């Protein structure tokens, strides 16, 4: 993982002297502190499901349920905890088909039912993600959706980046004070806007899984998650 410097240019130096107030500071230094951190995700999440057809609602739903049970069983066999397996959606709806009449008109007729069942699986061992998807397909799944990566404790990363942003702001203020020949005073205010976090298409490695003979695991790249923070800090200038 690459490491980056958190230094950023100072944006504003305000020397607002107010001689009318004896105990007021001689001025202020206002800076924007920024920091960011690239972190490898520690879990992968995927939604795997099936869409089945049947002549009756029960037949369609039963077929989807059997496949969903197979997906859940596969995940458990691969060591996924029950808490990381959950049903995300179940659907059932009638089907119709278009039929052309002798007079050339087209009508819709009943054509059985379609049922869907989707299971969301979260894996800490991301190297097993490709194999999980492959084995799920072998068990009857025909839908793979919503693959994502995340952090189980994002608050810890947020805190670390915010602290780094505050340190960056202070370092900027100290450089400005030194360059202008003034003495940096205490911090007057710190404003921390909401953080910005987004996955970036920069792979830290390919999640590889050993596939049984005759089959191929699905290749998956986890990428990285970039977390950034920004703070606006105002420091007093002492005489």
Features of the shown structure:
239 residues, alpha+beta, 5-stranded antiparallel sheet, 4-stranded antiparallel sheet, 3 helices, elongated, disordered N terminus
Provide an overview of this structure:
With 239 residues, this protein is α+β, with helices and mostly antiparallel strands. The chain contains three helices and eleven strands, in the order βββαββαβαβββββ.
What is the beta-strand fraction?
A: 35-45%
Q: What would you call the structural class?
A: alpha+beta
Main β sheet profile: 5 strands, antiparallel
Number of strands: 11
Number of helices: 3
Question: Any chance you could write out the topology, listing elements then pairs?
Answer:
Elements: E1 12-14, E2 27-39, E3 43-54, H1 57-77, E4 85-100, E5 106-123, H2 129-138, E6 143-150, H3 154-180, E7 183-191, E8 196-200, E9 206-207, E10 220-221, E11 224-238
Antiparallel strand pairs: 1-2, 2-11, 3-5, 3-6, 4-5, 7-11, 8-11, 9-10
Summarize the structure.
By secondary structure, this protein is an alpha+beta fold. It has 3 helices and 11 strands.
